[in-house]
Amino acid sequence: MSKLHIKKQDVGYDVETVVGYLMKKNGYTVKEANEYVEKNQDTSLLINQIIALKWSNRLLRHTNVCESLSIDTVKLMKGLIKDLKDKHNIEFDETTLE
Question: Any idea where the domains of the chain sit in the sequence?
Answer without folding.
Answer: 14-97
